[in-house]
Amino acid sequence: MKELLHALAPGDADWRIANQIDPLRLPAHVAIIMDGNGRWAKQRNYPRIMGHRAGVTVVGNIVETCAQLGLEALTLYAFSVENWKRPRLEVEGLWRLLRFYLRKELPKMMRNGIQFAAIGRIESLPEVVQAELQTVIEKTSNNRGMRLNLAINYGGRTELVDAVNAMLENARAEGNLEALEITEESIAEHLYTAGQKDPDLLIRTSGEMRVSNFLLWQIAYAELYVTETLWPDFCRRDLLEAICEYQSRDRRFGGLTRSPAPVVESHELLLDDEGLELPLAQLG
Ligand code: FPP
What we know:
By secondary structure, the chain is an alpha/beta fold. The protein has a single domain (2-256), classed as Undecaprenyl pyrophosphate synthetase, CATH 3.40.1180. The chain is 40% helix and 12% strand. It contains 9 helices and 6 strands. It has helices at residues 2-7, 13-18, 37-43, 48-69, 88-111, 127-139, 156-173, 184-189, 236-248; strands at 29-33, 73-80, 115-119, 147-154, 201-204, 223-226. Strands 3-4-2-1-5-6 form a 6-stranded parallel sheet, with helices on both faces. Helix 3 crosses helix 4 (48-69), helix 4 (48-69) packs parallel to helix 5 and helix 5 packs parallel to helix 6. The protein starts with a helix and ends in a 36-residue tail after the last helix. Residues 34-39, 52, 55-56, 59, 78-79, 83, 94, 97-98, 101, 150, 206, 231 line the site of farnesyl diphosphate.
């Protein structure tokens, strides 16, 4: 957080919003569905790929801001398993942009201590793309700052299928299939994000109210924040506003609010003098 405040001009709008953020209640992990590149391009009569190109610049800025804030992890949805349905030229353009991004941003990742990871079915990507991903993964592997997960050829359902198959395969290899027990912990340990905290905040740009097969397991208790802003227009201020909004939420994880109603200590309180159940309305 200190690093971010140093990077801002004291008194300007971003600095004022950053100062409203409580550094002790930052989300540990933020996930973002970067949507709206196509609409951004359409508004300008540009080909769609120009929207993605503008989106890449925003990725660089937002990643750096998150690292300066001191987040533990940032996960960005760059390409879904469903995105192969797009025209070949767009898909190929996205691979070119990804390679450009990796080369351009590596020095910034090193400066900011970012550890880079790619999550998804990476083995199905073009080999040149896999090779460049591997280079950045290796070069940033000793960094100890924010973890940046880029979700590429990612699907929440395929991730769960891969996790279950990995468990089956391990159990088979160990001759343990009979004893295999599936638990929430064992599933989490076999996800692409194993060992990382679940996202606290899921941001989606450009207004669609859906999660689009993103981190289905991990976002069970994430706070959702949807903004109308298109991804290429999403800026540092938008991110800081999302975090302020997150800090105003009352996270209950299925429990009670911070100022809970009196707890009913005994079921006897739910019964009247004759032992009959009281209608809920009478319980106040
Ligand atoms: C959604 O916009 C965005 C994507 C499918 C890809 C996200 C890609 C980027 C932000 C750029 C590439 C990123 C890296 C790191 C290289 P859309 O095309 O679905 O927009 P629309 O809904 O307005 O059509």
